[in-house]
Amino acid sequence: MSKAIPKMTKYMTMTPFAINSEATLVEAMDVMKDKKIRHLPVMKGGKIFGLISDRDLKSFFAFAGTDPKSIRVGDVCSEDPYLIAPDSLINEVAAEMAHRKVGSAVVVDNGKLVGIFTATDACQALSDICETRFHA
After folding, report:
1. What is the b/e burial string over 39-65, where b = at least 16 CB atoms within 10 angstroms of the residue's CB?
2. What is the pLDDT of residues 21-37, one digit of tens each?
3. Which residue range forms the structural domain that includes residue 43?
4. Distance between CA atoms of 130 and 26, rounded to whole angstroms?
5. pLDDT band at residue 50 under the 50/70/90 scheme
6. Residue 1 lies in a domain
7. Which of 38, 69, 113, 126 has the fewest CB atoms within 10 Å of its CB?
């Protein structure tokens, strides 16, 4: 008997941390470091505006002569994050993340941020699926 493909709600990180587009890069870095996360949805006016990753921040900090305390997250974040619904199927989301070469998908329900699905979540899903469907 075949099992149903899991929906995003089973593996996504619920209630993700987010940051306002007016916050500085230093503030974003501090949130990521404090919360031990690598992807941070960027909000503007209560809506998803973009996404910033630790890779984005590291790249930006590598440029000499820039002051990360004066640069706003909204000015440098990706303004086209991969948005998905909570009932999206995990296999479709993982395939699209691989196709886009992105490390996360932002889960939105009726325009509201409800979760995030990261490469770490995908690894956990793969591990769970392998353990429940295959035998050593």
Report:
1. bbbbbeeeebbbbbbbebbeebeeeee
2. 999 999 999 999 999 99
3. 8-133
4. 39
5. very high
6. no
7. 69
